[in-house]
Amino acid sequence: MENTEPDHEPEVRSYYLLEFLYEETPNAFDMGYLSADPAEIRAALEDQYNGESPTTGPGEQVCLWVVQRGVLAHGLDLNPLIRSRCEDGVVRTLTEIRNLSGKTSPATSYTIDWDTIAAQLPPLQNPLATSDDEDLVLDVPDPFPAPDVPITIGDQEGWLNHGWTDITGG
Q1: Which residues pair with 166 in a beta bridge?
Q2: What pTM did the predictor assign?
Q3: What pLDDT digit, counting tens, does each position of 43-70 carry?
Q4: Of all helices (H) and strands (E), which one includes residue 98?
Q5: Helix or strand run (H / E) with residue 46
Q6: What does the buried/exposed string (b/e) look like for 127-159 if buried means 16 or more CB atoms within 10 Å of the residue's CB?
Q7: What angle do CA 57, 73, 1 make, to 5 degrees?
Q8: DSSP string covering 115-163, please?
Q9: By three-state DSSP, how is residue 47 classified?
Q10: pLDDT (tens digit per residue) in 129-154
């Protein structure tokens, strides 16, 4: 929740922001998990794809943003790194499943290539976001620093918090 104190300034920190975007109605959502700890990001990603999450679906987009001192510096498209065995027995990435939407459905078990994800994560610069931080800043420079990621994110100020966070600011 946004802090409304008159002298309160949004926090400028470095962090990773895992984003889950599902645009198909009526179940559309845009949520994220924010942390400076890669192990926490991994746990949140695995929780979403443990077979019990009601929010995963074949139309979902997943990416990992890297924010250095409040400025978006890098983005990773995670869709090719998350796989599922579909009803026809073929193992497909989320990207492939999305492209086949309506023609096949994924099973409830997913495999995440965390080694590839971790190898692409740059170290964060101090100061790092902590679980006590509220109202974190995300400034998106022009040009967009992650043109190969299939979704974009806009400036955020005053409503991003550690842990599960609303990316839309609503």
Answers
A1: 31
A2: 0.84
A3: 999 988 876 554 555 567 899 999 999 9
A4: helix 94-99
A5: helix 38-48
A6: eebeeebbbbbbebeeeeebeebebebeebebb
A7: 60
A8: HHHHHHPPPPPSSBP-TT--SEEEB--SS-S-TTSSS----EEEEE-SE
A9: helix
A10: 999 988 888 898 888 888 888 777 87
